[in-house]
Structure formats: C-alpha cells, structure tokens
Amino acid sequence: MAKTLEIRWHGRGGQGAKTAALLLAQSASQVGKYVQGFPEYGPERMGAPVTAFNRISDGKIRVHSSIKEPDVVVILDPTLIGATTDVTAGVGPDGVFIVNTNRSPQEIRKQLGIDKGKVYTVDANKISEETIGRVIPNTPMMGALIKVTGIIPYEAFIEDTKKQLEKKFSSKPEVIKGNLKAIERAYQEVKGE
Question: Are 38 and 7 in contact (CB under 8 A)?
Fold first, then answer.
C-alpha cells in the first residue's frame, strides 16, 4: 500500500492557504503523484480562520474527507496557535509543524505545547514583503514545505509553479518573479530542530 502524505494548512482568509493547497496538488500531479487539494471554509471573509488540505501519494487515494490526523501542519499565521482552532489536533508523535514566524523552532515548540515531532520556522511574511512587495505568506510556505518533506523535487516544483503563475499573472512578470524568489528564499531559510 502506498504511503499518503497528509497535510493540513491553517491560515486566515486572504493569506493564500487554499491557493497553496491547490498549487501544491497541481505540482505534485505533474510529477506523477496522486493528489487531493481542497479547502474547508468557515465564515468566508478576510481574516477569518481557513483550513485547507492536501493528500499526496504514489498510489490511488480512496479517502474523500477532511484530514483529521495530518502528517504535516503548515501554519500561515502564528496568531492561530492557541486561538479557537487547535492546530495540533490529531497530530501524532512524528508530526511535523512548519510555522510562519520570526521566532525559533524551540520557542514555537513551547508555544504549541508539544514535546515530540519536528518543528520548523521561516519568516514568510518578511520574505514575501521583500520579494513580492506585500505580505502574502503562501508561496514562501510552499518552499519551506518542499524543503522539509521532499515530497516533490524542488526543480520540478519551481518549473510547474512558474507555469501556473504565468497563466494567472501573464501581464505581471514582477509578480511571477517575486513569488519564485519567495519560494527559493524560504526553501533556503527554513530552520528546524
């Protein structure tokens, strides 16, 4: 039976959690993986908590539900830690957390209240502001996720993401270039313990 990597994204409306899950699914499918990428909405407004999900596998995926026991949790907004959403729910002892913050993995581990698993941090807000020109942490967080999991070869991910961005932002080459640079920087700058 093929191992399926299950990823849960936590963010706020406008930060790109849904877009990241869909972009990741598209890129993984281009390298021959079976994929799912989908959001789960609460109140649909800017700033409201949003959850999105990915399943990525070498074999067919027969489960069609939200992810209750993720292997990886990506947190686009660190203010969600300890908020109304339990970002640690269902995560096993080998779970991986990737958090958008300028704080250290050790500080975030303490804040999450976990003593097992792995914690990685990257300042995706700073990276996106410096590369894209505004705070939108989704693409840098994707770069960190690719580095941490190795689920997709980096070069293939960059190539496919560039194609997807070119379709969406064909008249804005600076947006494409900025997002690719954000991914690259986060891939290089993510820290773990």
Answer: no
Domains and CATH numbers, the chain: 4-192 (3.40.920.10)
pLDDT in tens, 139-187: 999 999 999 999 999 999 999 999 989 998 888 889 899 999 999 999 9
CB 73 within 8 A of CB 8: yes
Amino acid identity for residue 94 in this structure: D
Span 48-59, pLDDT tens digits: 888 999 999 999
Burial 22-49 (b: 16+ CB within 10 A, else e): bbbbebbbbeebbbbbbbeeeeeeeeeb
* Cα–Cα dist 67/90, whole Å: 9
Rounded distance between C-alpha atoms, residue 182 and residue 58, angstroms = 28
